[in-house]
Amino acid sequence: MSNALVQIDSLRIDVKVTRTRRLTIVNSATFDVEPGQLLGLIGESGSGKTMLCRSLVGTLYRRGAYIQSGSLTFGGTDLVNASPKDWRDIRGKRIGYIPQSALAGPNPVMTIGAQMAEAIKQGEKMDNSYVRARALELLEIVQIRRPEIVLKQYPYELSGGMKQRVMIACAIAREPQLIVADEPTTGLDVTVQAEIMELLRQIRRDLNTSIILVSHDLPLINEVCDDIVIMHAGATVEKIPSEQIEKTRHPYTQALYNSRIDLVEPRGKLITINGQPPTVGDWPTGCRFAARCDYAQPQCSADVEIPLATVGTKHVSACIRQAEIWGK
Amino acid sequence: MVIAFSLIRLSPGDPAAARLGAGAETEAVEALREQLGLNKGALEQFINYMAGIFRGDLGVSLVNGVDVLETIQRTFPLTLIYITLSVLFAFIISIPVGTIIGWSNKATAVYIFRGITAIIIATPNFFIAMVAILIFSVQRNWAPVFGYVSEFPENLKYLWLPIAINTLILVAIISRVLHTSVVDTREEEFVETGIIRGVSRPRFFWFYILKPSLAPTVVLMSYMMATMLGATVILETIFSLPGIGRELVGAVLASDYPMVQGILLMFGVITVLLSFIGDLLAYALDRRVKI
Amino acid sequence: MSSNKAFREDATRRERLKEWVSRPGGFGIITGVVMFASITLVGFIYPLVGPYGSDEFVGKSLEAPSLAHPMGLDQLGRDVMTRVFSAVPIDIGIAFLGVSIPLVIGTIVGILLGLSKNKYFKSIVSSLIDGINAFPLLIIAIAMVAFLGPGLFNVVIILTIMNWARYARIARTRAVVVLQQNYIEATKLMGYSRRRVIRKHIAPNVSSESLAYALSDFILVIIIVSGLSFLGLAARPPTAEWGSMIADGRTFLGEAWWLTVFPGLALCWAAISLSFIVEGLSRRDRGNA
User: Fold this and answer.
1) What is the CATH number of the domain that holds A245?
2) What tens digit of pLDDT does each residue of B228-245 get?
3) Contact, A222 vs A303, CB < 8 A?
4) What angle separates helix B211-238 from helix C203-230, to the nearest 10 degrees?
């Protein structure tokens, strides 16, 4: 565990709503990312996935959010108290970021070439011919045809999939140790989605980069990633290797897994999760899934933090009844 | 052009009779009609007028017989100078104001900013001008209102106040539009990528904040320019500046139809030109804009 | 989230009002409405109950403001306060006509354009609309005074001729969008008559946008009416009208500032109250505080 690239422990992120009102968006996020690991981060909207990503690239302040407590380290650097200089050294160089929406990710008023040059240079002085060669090389890596032409184009001239490939090229420009991909396939066709996923896997293989892949699509994550972290209502509820997903030890993961539309057996009943996720900031005490959980008992809602219990190697669960329900 | 012309034809009054006054004899009126070509059919008059435009002939003034085109050439440069200067100053002031308030997004600052600009926009320019005159011309003789002198250093004394007022109003309009635009831009996802790319501060402000926000501002400005031209008419009248706007008011009051028509045509051309320039500029800033 | 409270059954009227005001732009809307209502009320009531007539000579020429005449007397010895308030029905009334008539005409034309299948009608009216909209409103209004002659009635005619095109454009755009909506399709399937569909379903949906524009247009038109009067092209003496009062006061700016400042403030009051409402409504639309 000590050689983990990213260590997140009981991270709490608050957001300033008004001068006096604070909302807790992420309450207790706890997980590690190993070097070269492809980690899936999954949860419903409002579970704090995006904020968690932002905390890794230091742009929380843009939405008036900040880390309230807990710890967040990357390669030994404390990111909670990182100075602007620390961020300059880490962001873009050691942590790459692929934005949520392919359509809004690239800057609309700059050519692809200019944007890639920025991503390559990261504010440093570099030889122009080197920058250009590198940009072409990166576009080759993300399998864009006719890169010379693309460099001169504006984002609106590219398709959604192309744009996201460019964003990936920008993210890997400095061969970072970690790539944060925040729902990188939102708004893309299923076929394009599969291509992007394949590309991410290939990049992980070739560059030995860790990737945090955020999604709300469990089957997709399950197929692509090594390990899965499940978030619910701002808290980590389970971390499980993807091949063991069927042996989940948390009712929420189970519900997510069951609620997928089964393409193999389409006539089966469509199972959905009861109720709505709790309102952001208006968290119930104890287990936040209790209100929607079939196994819930009064002690689940007691006013105590639910601890993460180790179930097996690389498998932790935040259900106090997991042992009872699934047995040893 | 068609509109400028049809306005004349639609008018119930007879320009010739109006020119000579109520007591004029019928023969005299008829003679003048003949001279002005008003006795011909509407279509013929229109064709003659159009032909005149292409020859650079906009007719002559009914009041003093001066060539209309010549009058426009004489009066337009002043209007052009002072509009250009106001727009220039207005952009120089509005860009930092709109960007900084939009980017910082401090609730109090935004509230005050939007309140003040709303008040400036809602206040008629002639009232602003009157108050300014009361302060700068009546109480201290800093900005004389009468007797414009066109020589260079001397004319600044007469021009600075109208330019300042025009600039103030434009700043309110432009900075408001820019502010809204910047607020929209700062929520965009690509701003995030800009931060992550470690772009230098000036470069970031230009490429990630200002440039994406400016295109809508410029497009709107070219529409606003039309309203601005209207404002110059009033300001020129108040400050007795011999520009094209005051010429228009004078011509209207004197029922000088060829003059009104010529100036109207001029304004039409300027409006079209301005919106074209605005579109070109917007395209240069943001390729998504369609011309 | 917090606004749900307002729709609770047991919320008192006072609570509901408070809740409404606390939503984005509420303060601006309330301030604007109160300001506008107050000047309209004063304008309609004061001339009836005030001690002087608007054309009555009640004292020395250019008498400074005093208790008897809080806004002083003008160059002819008329009470400025009476005249400022007497101008309300004229300025606001003319502006109201100058907005409402084009609003109605323009919206009807716009809807017809949206519905029409006649290519020639469409292209002719559309190019007419674009042609009229290309000209600056104040310039064209000034020019048209030359042909129609000065006078408040003519101003209404000019505003109607010029302004309907703007409303027609808004209504046309909106009508095209509304006509593509599913519910319009549904009304056809339900066998409603064409007239009923237009009256009950299309017109209300189209006019909401036009009404929003009309409010901001109201400010512009008030300024144009008073601006034309200021240039001596609309209201003629002895009509009490803000723009012409300010113009009259120009000559006496040195010795009698009250002739200019009070009508100007009244004009600002009216225009600013409306702009607060517009600002408040747009904030509410955008939903940010």
Assistant:
1) 3.40.50.300
2) 777 888 888 888 888 888
3) no
4) 40
CB contact B165 to A (< 8 Å): no
Q: Which amino acid is located at B190 in the chain?
A: F
ipTM over 0.90: no
List the subunits that have 3+ CB pairs under 8 angstroms with B: A, C
Q: What are phi and psi of A194, to 5 degrees?
A: -60, -40
Distance CA A168, CA A206 (A): 14
Question: How many Å apart are CA A236 and CA A252, to the nearest integer?
Answer: 11
Is A57 a domain residue?
Answer: yes
Block means of pLDDT (10 residues each) for chain C, 289 residues, are 46 75 80 91 85 77 79 83 88 91 91 83 82 75 77 87 87 82 76 77 78 87 89 80 88 84 91 89 68
Smallest Cα–Cα separation from A87: which of A116, A38, A122? A122
Are the beta carbons of A109 and B211 separated by less than 8 Å? yes
| Complete DSSP assignment for A121-147 | HTTS---HHHHHHHHHHHHHHTT-SSH
Number of residues that make up chain A: 328
Contact criterion met (CB < 8 Å) for B123 and C138 = no
Question: Which is nearest to A240 in space by CA: A215, A218, A272?
Answer: A218
Using the Cβ of B251 and the Cβ atoms of chain C, whether some distance falls under 8 Å is answered with yes
Rounded Cα gap, residues A103 and A158, in angstroms: 10
Q: How many CA atoms lie within 13 A of A100 on its CB side?
A: 13
3-class state of residue C57 by DSSP: strand
CA gap A178, A171 in Å, rounded: 10
Best CA proximity match to C135, nearest among B1, A203, A36, A41: B1
Whole-angstrom distance, CA of residue A97 vs CA of residue A213: 10
Chain-centre distance for alpha carbon A304: 27
Q: How many Å from the N-terminal Cα to the C-terminal Cα in chain C?
A: 14
- In chain A, % helix, strand, coil (3-state, to 5) comes to 35, 25, 40
A183 assigned to some structural domain? yes
Amino acid at C228: L
Spell out the residues 6+ positions from residue C26 whose beta carbon is closer than 8 angstroms to its own. C20, C280, C284
pTM (2 d.p.):
0.80
Q: Does B105 touch chain A (CB under 8 A)?
A: no
Residue A142 structural domain: 6-326
Domains held by chain A: number: 1
Cis peptide before C238 (omega within 30 of 0): yes
A175 lies in a domain?
A: yes
- Is A154 in contact with B194 (Cβ distance < 8 A)? no
Q: Which contiguous run of DSSP H or E holds residue C248? A: helix C242-250
What does each C-alpha distance from B58 to A11, A77, A285, C228 come to in angstroms? 77, 77, 83, 26
Burial environment of residue C46 by CB neighbours within 10 A (0 to 12, 13 to 18, 19 or more): middle
Residue B115 CB contacts under 8 Å (≥ 6 apart), including other chains:
none
Nearest of B131, B27, A93 to residue C250 by alpha carbon? B131
- What are the tens digits of pLDDT across the range C74-126? 888 888 888 889 889 888 999 999 999 999 999 889 888 888 878 888 888 88
Among B191, B192, B210, B213, the residue to mutate for chain A (most A Cβ within 10 A): B192
Q: Does some domain include residue A1?
A: no
Q: Do residue C272 and residue B248 have CB atoms under 8 angstroms apart?
A: no
Question: Cα(B101)–Cα(B107) distance, rounded to whole angstroms?
Answer: 10
